[in-house]
Design a protein that fits this description.
Length: 529
């Protein structure tokens, strides 16, 4: 599928430039520009690019940054310093900056086609929805960024405030959902079923649910900085259709055919990362029983199988030095990889080391369990239409159990401790507990159900301060002092932008803080250090 999409996009981008011409206008047509393409072939390219389906942008973006910053994983190889907040410009460019602006460019090009091709409307609305979600990730990663005039051929685009960008995200999601609803049943619309839409296969109702659910996600993102806007957008989203079950989960299809599988598992055999100590603590110590999801997501340590360690499931601290990485308890073989039952059942059940890393699994963008927990927080805030906080909270955990077990042989796991996990320890919901305690419970569970979406998990930690992560052992970023409990706040702008676009150096950016990795984004209200 991936190679097919690349071939189609290569054709589209190259265009048709054959024969002689005696016309000046024809001579000035860019032979490498888009020439009357069908956006049904651009849509899957946008979906794959924005989701980081390629293993390279996924590794240097998600895995070596957001998944470490939110502490799903810790870095266990001496070759990489990003786990200690070391900045690698090439990684940040390839992992975040370039994929996003590629998506934004193609979406804007498609918008320009609508005037003469109204049959492309549904495809464009779908592009607006996925681009809105990728825009949120981009601005959450960098803060203020070029947006309204970006990807239009100007290397010195103006930077826009994160507040203005978020307000436009709400507009994009709202309008896209409304237009899709109006277009329902319109047989003149260009077909986007099957492989033309590798998230929902052209199911318009699911796209409307996804758009409303994203609107609720981003409404809550603003709840501490802009509560009136957050409530208005959140309550409007709650009036519409939301993801209703795991059947509605949004994810980019990765077949595992050819040379490509889910990128997390493609890079998992290189001893580069393992479960973090924070994740181990939350899995093992939140309830009176270990989290039933732990063996679904993570494999037992290789050292446990061979008798080198007594730790069956375990993780290492974030931000280790080279010397600390060499300590026996921190060696990759003595800790858990992402080789859980859901992807490598033979490893946990028969101790067969994985050899095929081309895992056919969706790259999840949003799931029903998260929506339940969004509704739980909205209910906690008293938003109309959110329902009961406790019911939503517990439904989210149960939906996560179901989702992570999908496709796993039922003989390999037990459900006997599910209810004990939900009704004991710090997981148990107590109506008399403080609102802050309940928020901590909701966000800690959301952190788990988002796995392995490090971008969203990192954003939620910065928004709420939960779950309670562990400061890195060492920081290579001088402005961040982990000994004082400080964490990274955002990524700094890439070198090309700083060199070529004077707007990137404007000291008024990011609420007059300028740029830097210890600079808070707009919605970050200092609920952590």
């Amino acid at each position: 599928m991936k190679q097919y999409i690349k071939a189609v996009c290569s054709f589209i981008l190259t265009g048709l430039f054959t024969g002689c011409t005696g016309n000046f206008d024809d001579m000035n047509v860019d032979p490498y520009g888009i020439v009357n393409p069908n956006p049904a072939y651009i849509l899957p390219f946008i979906q794959e690019t924005g989701a980081h389906v390629d293993s390279w942008p996924y590794q240097v973006g998600d895995n070596l940054h957001s998944q470490l910053f939110c502490q799903y994983f810790s870095n266990t190889t001496t070759s990489f310093s990003s786990g200690r907040y070391g900045y690698n410009n090439a990684w940040v460019t390839d992992g975040f900056w370039t994929p996003y602006y590629t998506v934004l460019k193609h979406t804007k090009i498609t918008k320009g086609m609508l005037e003469t091709n109204p049959s492309y409307s549904n495809i464009y609305q779908i592009m607006r929805i996925v681009t809105a979600s990728f825009t949120a990730t981009a601005t959450d990663t960098f803060g203020d960024i070029p947006y309204f005039t970006a990807s239009e051929g100007n290397s010195q685009s103006a930077y826009d405030s994160q507040k203005d960008i978020y307000y436009d995200i709400f507009k994009e999601l709202t309008e896209a959902a409304e237009i899709l609803a109006k277009n329902t049943g319109d047989i003149t619309q260009e077909d986007c079923s099957g492989n033309k839409d590798i998230i929902y296969g052209g199911d318009i109702q699911k796209w409307i649910k996804f758009a409303n659910s994203l609107r609720l996600r981003y409404a809550l993102r603003l709840s501490f900085i802009d509560p009136a806007k957050a409530k208005a957008e959140g309550e409007a989203a709650l009036k519409g259709l939301l993801l209703e079950s795991n059947e509605d989960n949004a994810g980019v299809l990765i077949t595992g055919n050819g040379n490509y599988g889910h990128p997390l598992y493609q890079i998992s055999g290189w001893d580069g990362f393992c479960m973090s100590k924070a994740m181990e603590n939350i899995f093992k110590n939140s309830s009176s029983v270990s989290d039933p999801r732990m063996p679904l997501l993570f494999g037992q340590a290789r050292g446990y199988v061979t008798g080198d360690t007594e730790k069956q499931f375990g993780g290492t601290p974030n931000g280790m030095s080279v010397t600390e990485m060499a300590e026996k308890d921190n060696l990759p073989k003595n800790n858990s990889y992402c080789w859980g039952l859901q992807v490598y059942p033979d490893w946990n059940s028969r101790n067969v080391v994985p050899t095929n890393y081309k895992v056919p699994r969706r790259m999840e963008l949003m799931n029903y369990a998260e929506v339940c927990l969004l509704k739980a927080e909205a209910a906690l805030k008293g938003w109309s239409g959110a329902g009961n906080a406790k019911t939503n909270y517990e439904n989210g955990i149960r939906a996560s159990f179901e989702a992570f077990r999908t496709g796993v042989d039922a003989t390999l796991y037990s459900t006997s401790e599910d209810e004990t996990y939900i009704t004991s320890g710090s997981v148990k919901w107590n109506e008399s507990a403080s609102e802050e305690t309940k928020l901590k419970q909701i966000i800690t569970q959301k952190w788990i159900v988002l796995y392995p979406n490090g971008n969203e998990a990192w954003a939620e930690f910065r928004r709420t301060g939960y779950p309670e992560l562990i400061p890195v052992l060492h920081s290579e970023e001088s402005s961040i002092n982990p000994a004082n409990g400080e964490f990274i706040k955002k990524m700094r702008y890439v070198d090309d932008e700083i060199r070529e676009n004077p707007n990137a150096s404007d000291p008024s950016l990011n609420q007059n803080q300028g740029d830097g990795m210890n600079v808070r984004v707009w919605w970050d209200t200092k609920r952590y250090k």
